[in-house]
Each structure stands twice: as C-alpha cells, then as structure tokens.
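Let's see one such:

===
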Amino acid sequence: MWGLFTAYEGPTYLGYELDNIGLTLLQREKVLALVKLAVGEATHNIICGIEGAVSLGGSQQSYKLIDETGNELTGELGELLYKKLENSAYMNQG
C-alpha cells in the first residue's frame, strides 16, 4: 500500500501511519480525500491571507506579490487556486 501516498523520495510519514491503522482500501481513500480537502482549504486561506482578502492570525494586511519577471500576481493566486480546487474531484464529492 505504500504506493498510494508517497513522496518523491519514497513513502511519507502519513502513508506509513495510514498503513499501520488497518484501514480498508475504501476507508484509506476517504481519509486521503479528506486530507487533500483540508490541505486545499488551508492553502487557499493562506493565499487569500497573503493577498489581503482575509485575516491571518487576527491581522489583515495586503502584500504585493510578483513573479520572477516583475509581473504582479496579487489577486490572481487565490482565484486560480480556488478554480483548481473547485475543479478537483475531491471538491465535487458529497
């Protein structure tokens, strides 16, 4: 079952722990879907916080985000990430 959740250098600690708690394949898939959902939501909240759309830790500030060529990305990252999450299979379940 190592192949279901591996990192570039091999199995992850999460995959190892999932292997050791005795989940069925269906249960493991559901747990992994929830983990992906939680990570996606947390990432979206962090990106929105960096862009100033929401507060992080009770403080709301705006930052100007630019890429390596100086193009401003502010305002685009949260929207792009949301679209990607919305189109992902785990966001459309339930």
Helices lie at 13-20, 25-50, 77-87.
